[in-house]
Amino acid sequence: MILLNKLKNFQIFGTFLIFLFALEESDERYIEGLNVNLGEALQFLREYDREATAMCNRVTMAQWQFVTNITDNYRRKMLDEQTLKAKFDRASWRKAVSFAWSRIPDPLARRQLKMLATRGRNSLTDDKFNEIYHLIAEMKELYTRTRLCPYKENDHQCNLVLDPDINKIMAQSKDYKELSYYWRAWHEAVGPPLKNKYMRYVRLANQAARLNGFADAGDQMREDYEDDSFQQNIAEVISAVTPLYKHLFTYTRHKLIDRYGDVIRKDGPLPAHILGNMWAQNWQGIYDIVQPFPAAKKLDVTLDMMLQGISPLRMFQIAEEFFTSMGMIPMPPEFWRMSMFEKPTNREVKCTASAWDFCNRIDFRIKQCTRVNMEDLFSTHHEMAHLQYYLQYRDQPLLFRNEALPGFHEAVSDAIGLSIMTPQHLHRIGLYNNSTDDYESNINFLIMIALEKITYMPFAYIVDQWRWRVFSDGDADMTTRWWELRLQYQGIVPPVTRSESHFDPASKYHVPADIPYVKYFVGIVLQFQLFESLCDVAGHVGALHTCDFYRSREAGRLLSDVLSVGSSRNWKDTIREMTRGRTDRLDAGAMLRYFEPLAQWLRRQNQMEPVIGWITSQEDTALFAHWYKSKSTCLKPTSIALLLILNALYWIT
User: Signal sequence span per UniProt (predicted)?
Assistant: First the structure.
């Protein structure tokens, strides 16, 4: 009888268990209202498009005025316009969530309403919304205002800024102690002051996400990719690229040991400060150390440009002709009249190259302090590719005047870059008089590109892996977890011991500035997929890295078709069209095919190496690892409740 009673109670418990887990695993994600009136929804979207377009134009114009003439007056005006836009966005969100938008029958209206309803942090109360808005602004301001003292103590002018001063030193210096000084000084100047602010930001961002129907702020960020298997997809990509990365890493380590000696272990990870970049994300600064064939002719057309008398304006005309040669849209008159091509002499400006869409379908500009050299020639093409994207989707509603998925804008510009930076293309436009396709020059070229692209892959992957974990598991042990990921994926360790008070993730601007980072990972993968597709339709024959689709009308048609839809449909449809039906996912195959000649060469170079990649020792992890209790091992409150109920039911007789 006692056994029967226990079994009966277990049946009751089982039903209760299923109910609780059903609640816990519920897929009710989004917040929405009750209004299913299609006419009202369409009317709202028409009004929104008109008002948001005007607002976007005002904000963009104010930002342009500030960055092309930096004064306190223009800065205040820009901030005022941004504040007005934030209020407009909140009002638009409230209206959007009054609709039962998931049941609106029109698919394009449904998509626009979803964009408005699921993005941003408008679900917060006014006081908390203002708090997170100002908190992010404070973190950005603290970061950008940080200054460092020079390495040599006899110079007491502590006015070095990250860009360009410190970045230039990190790329050019080969003094181990000097690099260590700047690495440590920067990390310790920005991290500790930002830590408490960031912890508060995490709580507010999570609260906003949960009010909007998401599990946490990371879950909300990933919603932009409209793909439940997105994390699995990017994990597959990084796994596919890792063998190539480890071979490049191993070859680089050997060269760095030749340069720095036994401060680097022959089978171990690399210290973060000697790879030519503050975050070891781009290793092109050490190209002179790792260059395979120093005697081979270097690809640099700067002297040719100067000898031909090429001006900054002519560089933009050359870039435009690349696109028009493919049958794409020429730059409108406003572009030539309103852009800033050179650095003014009579006012302070921000010289970072950028492309601008003023939201009115006619005004598109580039801001660049152009110098006559090869680097800026590439930059000119890169920025004009952004404008070409703007021009192609300008007839879409404002909400769809955007990239197919985060990272695709950069992918398009970088795919163009892969075509124009080849010796073949530079020869075709009269800037490179040696079109010889010799083996040594090819390997030098590929390793130069790999030091920019392949080395960036693991870093671009881990930033948001870290951030999403903080959002989901809490803000304890943030620095330890940062270095765990960097060691696991990059094989990088800090040059000096770190503690939780340092808060090293804040050394990267995108973390305190609330800018998602995985889009850069996506952009690298997609640029090679797009590049390969354009090369295929252009009829390219030979190694992929030698392709140039300049003057290919077929490539221009495919690119125009892909760009013109903007974000009006799920990005998987765009990728399927881009690859002509081969795939609708992120795929590392094109990238690996591009670098295959380099991969073969690296495998031969590394034949005698004891370890391909790195072996982690206790000495490495001791630099940052501290005992901590992982939240992943903790029981959820519902699980604890279930155990208590189970225990109570067992003793009922």
Answer: 1-28
